[in-house]
Amino acid sequence: MIRVLLVHDACLMRSALADRLAREPGLEVHHAPWCSAPARARVLRPDVCAVDLDCSDSYGIAPLGELQSRHNGSRGTRLVVLASANRPGPLRQAVEAHALGYVDKDATPERLVAAIRQVAGGRRFVDDSLGYGFLRAAEMPLTRRELSVLSLAAEGASIADIAHSLHLSNGTVRNYMAAITRKTGARNRVDAIRISQGEGWV
Q1: Cα–Cα nearest to 64, from 29, 92, 88
Q2: H-run or E-run covering 18
Q3: Which of 30, 40, 78, 200 is most buried (CB neighbours < 10 A)?
Q4: For residue 20, is pLDDT > 60?
């Protein structure tokens, strides 16, 4: 039996997809929004977390690392991510978190089932349609922390809000914003957000 935790912030989508997955033989399916997913994962100890990379909470970017804790020396939870080729920022985040499965959001539920089974067996699964997204992700100039800062800034968070959410000092956040502005070739913070959103980085 493969224990699966499905993580998605849209309740209707999450419930419907969990119900569809639960009809597959050999899958034990649980689901949670991002705000409670890390705690749920610690309790459930799933074999696979299937996660939507779009995170609506105050993390900046989805906290994939918090879903992967090892259990008493075991291999830990393996990740399958739901991604879009036009969003290279989240794709890069998933690569850095060592996700094994990459399923296009436009794919069928059957593709997600196939990915879960393959990843549970320790094998990589990548939808061909995400290839261009991976190329763009490799060319991104921003680090994971810079992406997290920028994602929160794009949601309208102030320097103080970003610092609080990411456990940083205000000065460190300002330094990150200066680096982001320089790397994106932007004139200011607003321009950096505009450029990054246009590129699909946040």
Answers
A1: 92
A2: helix 11-22
A3: 78
A4: yes
Residue 122 has pLDDT above 90, yes or no: yes
Distance CA 55, CA 61 (A): 6
In this predicted structure, the answer to whether residue 125 has a pLDDT above a threshold of 90 is yes
Are the beta carbons of 134 and 193 closer than 8 angstroms?
A: no
Packing angle between helix 88-96 and helix 131-138, nearest 10 degrees?
A: 80
Task: List, in order, residues 6 or more apart from 193 with CB less than 8 Å away.
Answer: 150, 153, 154, 202
Alpha carbons 73 and 124: distance in angstroms, whole number: 22
The two three-digit tokens of residue 139, written as one number: 């060319």
**Which long-range contacts does 161-164 make (Cβ < 8 Å, 24+ apart)?**
162/60
Read off the amino acid at residue 147: L
**Gyration radius of the chain's alpha carbons:** 17
Residues 6+ apart with CB under 8 A from 50: 4, 5, 6, 7, 21, 80, 81, 82, 101, 103, 112, 115, 116
Residues 32, 190: Cα–Cα separation, whole Å = 33
Q: With H, G, I as helix, E, B as strand and everything else as coil, classify residue 8.
A: coil
**Of residues 181, 177, 182, the one with CA closest to residue 192:** 181
